[in-house]
Amino acid sequence: MIIFDAHLDLAWNAIDFNRDLRLPVADIRKSEDGMAGKSRGCNTVSFPELRRGGVVIFIATLLARQLRSGPNPAVQRYSSMEAAYGAAWGQLAYYRAMEQEGWLRWIKDRDMLDAHVVAWSNDAPSERETQAGPGEEPLGFILSMEGADPILSPDQVHEWYTAGLRIIGPAHYGVSPYAHGTDTEGGLFPQGPALLKEMDRVGMILDVTHLADQSFDEALDIYGGPVLASHHNCRALVPHQRQLTDEQIKRLIGRGAVIGSAFDAWMLYPGWVRGQTTPEQSGVKIETVVDHIDRVCQIAGNARHAAIGSDLDGGFGREQSPLDLDTIADLQRLPDLLRARGYGQEAIEGIMHGNWIRFFHDAWSKA
Ligand SMILES: [Zn+2]
Hints:
Mean pLDDT: 95
Shape: globular
Low-confidence stretches: none
Largest sheet: 7 strands, parallel
Bound molecules: zinc ion
Order of helices and strands: EHHHEEEHEHHEHEHEHEHEHHEHH
Radius of gyration: 19 Å
């Protein structure tokens, strides 16, 4: 079964972690043997591994954060928005290079989406297992920006759209120039409403993941276009301001959103301490993610709004992943786990890929 993963930070890994994503995961791990830092020597994502797991379509990010006051995870690094702008263009150029080499297919509209899905739905298993090169059929991606720091002003949204960007998450960890994000409390900053209105005008999709609660509410009041939550779990199961409340999930469902469940273990286990808690101690398994998928489905009363947004290369590796996950190819274990919870074939296909495909098909039909 093909898989649609709504959150991978591929270019950030390729450039900031200096990972050659064309290599098998085992080779990347070997090349990082003995390196200090999270995910070093135990990463889980590369192009051959995505192919092997049938993860043939995904949302890939531009992630270039300005260093701001407040909570400062390592991901915040640039001293100006202009530097973040330059770094994001560099990441965009990486995707372009991978597209030119035939590893990736950049999906920008409904026709390209439909053609990609048809091509992979007819694939022979041997096509997926190509390890040595890009293979006949490229992996498809839709380009997103996580944290709008590289957008110098709202009127630049159009420039990014023309370049192929289709989704913006206005904030990430800490504050962005436009909105309060994870680990901060507050609404939009003065340029936030103008950013959202311009996104609406050009057909840029809004990703609410990482918005602080007040920013979430204000953004949904202002922005009228299609909304998604790319990598987002349930606050009722694991309390943290990074997670969605049941009320927020209801509001998203009311807007036709799809919510991608994340595999980052700290979002799956209450009280996880990064760098201390281990998968073994917590007992977090792939099945734990099913709890979050199931909660979204129970709130919706159907299985049309839950999906996957693994975040498996989001600055962590096996040390912060479910215990029984070695690489991203293990996402293929989800269908059986869903079946064991009573989900039927149609619902499972929706969660694994169909809901995201429908979402983008609809979003781009209106455009
Ligand atoms: Zn994230």
